[in-house]
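Sequence in, structure out. Go.
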Amino acid sequence: MAPEFGGPEPRLTADFWVRAYLRRLEGAMIPAYVTRRGDPTAGAVLVKVATLDGQARAFQRSFDLTADRRIWVTLAEGDERTVDATLARQRQNDPDLWIIEIEDRQGRTLLDEEGLS
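Output:
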């Protein structure tokens, strides 16, 4: 039987995406750590960036219906303790969740780069 074309695009496993993202961050000299390992195949991924001044932002992937594509949106931002509390609530609700933490004074995540949505 011939493969079907035109179907949904193949999805990367969460584990594969996380490893590729960490390599991209490493190449840009941006320190990042996996602070929570989720389901290796289908876990959602949250990205927290701490600017080392007590502030932080957390991002989650969402689907933009108007553009018909996945995008990264801000889940929480402000005082790092407040952002951490938001992430803790997310962990309680989703046992398959991955959390990546970045430390970068400039707040760089690279999430707006090609291939990371």
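Check: The two ends are 32 Å apart (CA to CA). The mean pLDDT is 90.
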